[in-house]
Amino acid sequence: MAEAASLSRFSPTYADIEAARRRIAGMGIATPLLESPWLNRELGGRLLIKAENLQVTGSFKLRGAANRMKALTKDEYGRGVVARSSGNHGLAIAYCASLIGTSAVVVVPDTAPAAKVERIKGYGATVVQVPMQTIAEMAADIADREGRVFVDPADDFWVVAGQGTVGLEIADQAEAVGATIDDVVVPCSGGGLAGGCALALEQRSPGTRVYGVEAAGFEKMANSLAAGRRINLPPGGRSICDAISGLYMAEIPFEVVRNRLAGTLAATDEEALTAMRVAFSEFGLGVEPGGAVALAAVLTGKLSLSGRTVVAVVSGRNVDLDLARRALQRQAA
Amino acid sequence: MAEAASLSRFSPTYADIEAARRRIAGMGIATPLLESPWLNRELGGRLLIKAENLQVTGSFKLRGAANRMKALTKDEYGRGVVARSSGNHGLAIAYCASLIGTSAVVVVPDTAPAAKVERIKGYGATVVQVPMQTIAEMAADIADREGRVFVDPADDFWVVAGQGTVGLEIADQAEAVGATIDDVVVPCSGGGLAGGCALALEQRSPGTRVYGVEAAGFEKMANSLAAGRRINLPPGGRSICDAISGLYMAEIPFEVVRNRLAGTLAATDEEALTAMRVAFSEFGLGVEPGGAVALAAVLTGKLSLSGRTVVAVVSGRNVDLDLARRALQRQAA
User: Fold this and answer.
1) Residue B9: how many CB atoms within 10 A of its CB?
2) Mutate which of B27, B29, B38 to disrupt the A interface (most A C-beta within 10 Å)?
3) Domain segments of chain A: what residues?
4) pLDDT digits (tens, 9 = 90+) for A157-197
5) What CATH class has A24-55+157-328?
């Protein structure tokens, strides 16, 4: 097997996504594609929800982490991995490390919720807490010092290929229910999920257009696509969509996405909250705000469903329950 | 084909459940079997959730309704069906009628939530609202007068066979993840779901024990099993678990269940609320209180998970959002 680290800086292809699916089989689940006949009637089209909030550890991040870690060489496996995250990526890394039996260090901001830190530790990972502005540096430092493989949440060959298995499953499942998909809408931050899905669907469903939905105020993909180069964001913005409010546009996903994404959209906090409520009442799903933005884009009509078949990826569930309560309090759309 | 009505009063067999699966294919979905490694660690066993809250129309009731209605003879199809329900059964009947193109009347209590009435109407069914104590009589009346086939929510050959497809899927899915199931825990009221699952698993997984979980104060199955005959409840009890707080012990399910159920358990309102919260945070599921009682039985230790593999059926999602908010407010267990 090639030294995994040497591949990490390349863009994956469709074949790498198929390989990822075989590699991570049994580590997560094939999440269902759900449909509400009632909502379809209301919206005048066919909406299918790819429910990655049901994924093991609570988000699609499991797929990329699993693919990266199953590709570790024997030497790398012996040295273990390191990641930076306060949320879904950290949970996925810690869990996958426990599953394959290697060691993991997760660097988290000192503002991370105690419940998430406890859970990452519970899976057996070592947690290092530092101020937010130094977590990247600390993770790089630990990688150097301890010889650990750094696993980026998005900017990694194996991670993008792993997230692409969501797109493969969408293509398979749409075929099984006889749906021809017009559009796939995907929550978007670093671009790993959007990139992987665009790559998978380009091959499997060439007529399908893939859109990324960002948190309003955190439109680094929109800005980068407009500029034709990666544009990071200055600190200081606010969004309840913590899972997609990073500041950095990742390099590999951007290369994958730039000629494959049909466009980007953005969802406000209010729109994400409404989508969380609809996910609960119409689909029986518990969703986090950042995981609900693709559904929000459809519900608000920013992406029209009229006469069309659209798949919205719901990407995660790890949300503070006070925020979930706020979402459920809202009036019907 | 046999006149469907003539079969309605018989108990189904395992073969009838397999036939039901073929008959209703494509009308609902094979819901996933979900697992939380974290919760497994906390509880010291393996808990699998059969997520029927993700079913089309929001509950397992779709299966029985679909099986009954697909078995209508040509004459019956022409005359249509009638049902009584304020909730999940009514939604399932209305939706299935719209799917197969027959007409449905749903008799609901005049206290039924406007949102549910609107939705039943939205699927094209005629809604008749009468005082709660007369809904059974009114439904029988309409069946007589209009020649419609009355579809009981539980006391029906086809309905029990349809609900049994939940048990078939559990057996298949457990095999697929290499699990040998010790116990299956099922929310229980009229006994259609418990009966169907017990029948399916007796054949497919003979070592598995099936338990029914009732709403505390509505233990008609426990009382009936103890007495060796069907015992109905007097009116006047209260429970937030509206989906399982009926007063009547159905005849066919009781015949199916009496020598097949390992036992019954009961869950209080508080326990159901806690289970709703855990379903959201650990599994990403939006669940109604009556749908959460089997999970509640495991979380409270009424059914021990220690060193065992247990499947808990989560049976529905149709809940008032104020009640869902109350559930999410609760402290972590």
Assistant:
1) 11
2) B38
3) 24-55+157-328, 62-150
4) 999 999 999 999 999 999 999 999 999 999 999 999 999 99
5) alpha beta
Mean pLDDT of B185-210: 97
Nearest by CB to residue A285, choosing from B284, B321, B325, is: B284
pLDDT at B6: 64
Size of interface A-B (CB pairs under 8 A): 93
With beta carbons under 8 A apart, name residues in chain A contacting B279: 286
Q: Which CATH number fits domain B62-150: 3.40.800.20, 3.40.50.1100, 3.40.20.10, 3.40.50.300?
A: 3.40.50.1100
**Closest-CA residue to B171 (of B208, B141, B223, B124):** B208
> Whole-prediction pTM value?
0.96
Confidence of residue B9 (pLDDT cuts 50, 70, 90): confident
Domain B20-56+157-328 architecture: 3-Layer(aba) Sandwich (3.40)
**CA distance to partner chain A, nearest, from residue B256 (Å):** 30
Nearest Cα to Cα of residue B69 among B123, B31, B115, B108: B123
Name the residue in chain B with its Cα closest to that of A118: B38
Q: State how far the alpha carbon of B48 is from the alpha carbons of B35, B38, B120, B238, in Å.
A: 5, 12, 32, 30
Distance (Å, whole) CA B142 – CA B144: 5
B34 to A41: CB separation less than 8 angstroms, yes or no: no
Taking contacts as CB-CB distances below 8 angstroms, the residues of chain B near A53 are: 284
| ipTM of this complex prediction, to 2 decimal places | 0.95
State residue A116's pLDDT score: 87
